[in-house]
Amino acid sequence: MGIAFTKLGDYEAAADSFRQARRILQQIGDRDAYGQAVAGTAFLQQQQGDTDRAIELYKEAIEIKENIRSQLMVGAFKSSFEERQVDTYEQIIKLLWDRGDKKKAFNYVERARAKTFLDRFPKVQVIQFWKLSSLN
Predict the structure, then answer these.
(1) Quick one: three-class SS letters along 37-95?
(2) d(CA 84, CA 65)
(3) Burial track 28-49 (b if 16+ CB lie within 10 A, e otherwise)
(4) Residue 65: per-residue pLDDT
(5) Tell me: the pLDDT tens digits for 12-40?
(6) How far apart are CA 10 and CA 22, in angstroms?
(7) 78-103, pLDDT tens digit by residue?
(8) Residue 72 and residue 83 in contact, taking contact as beta carbons nearer than 8 Å
(9) Residues 6 or more apart in contact with residue 29 via CB below 8 angstroms
(10) Are 92 and 59 in contact (CB under 8 A)?
(11) What class is the 2-134 domain?
């Protein structure tokens, strides 16, 4: 509902909706949905022109999502999960770039790309690669 209210320009109702969602989702322990609610709140702040707060919230949402992603064991689940997170990366990259913070924007581009690349390999292969590369 928060996103719908944001797109309609009803920012007060959107903020209320996101606040309630985050409170409930935190209480029930749904970290994935909580991360989405944080990202939605970031989008709301972005629409209201509060770029600094939007970036803070996008960072928080990415941290939550990366934490969840690191605990997923099956590559197919990781890929499916990551596909839903692309917009969050795109938004923070756009805000940082527009603000002139190209180095930080590039950092998020690389983080997103690295995660996509690593998801293509089972965890065991990645660990073996790092062990072999450290021998050189």
Answers:
(1) HHHHHHHHHHHCCCHHHHHHHHHHHHHHHHHHHHHCCCHHHHHHHHHCCHHHHHHHHHH
(2) 10
(3) eeeeeebbbbbbbbbbbbbeee
(4) 87
(5) 999 999 999 999 999 999 998 999 999 99
(6) 18
(7) 445 455 556 899 999 999 999 999 99
(8) no
(9) none
(10) yes
(11) mainly alpha
Calculated CA dihedral for residues 52, 53, 55, 58, nearest 10 degrees: 180
pTM greater than 0.90 (yes/no): no
pLDDT digits (tens, 9 = 90+) for 30-75: 998 999 999 999 999 999 999 999 999 999 999 998 888 766 655 5
Helix 51-71 vs helix 102-118: crossing angle, to nearest 10: 20
Would you place residue 118 in the very low, low, confident or very high pLDDT band (cuts 50, 70, 90)?
Answer: low
Determine how many CB atoms are found less than 10 A away from the CB of residue 123.
15
- How far is Cα of residue 32 from the mean position of the Cα atoms in its chain? 10
Q: In this structure, what token pair is assigned to residue 71?
A: 């605990």
> Alpha-carbon distance 6 to 4, whole Å?
5
The residue assigned the tokens 């965890």 is: 123
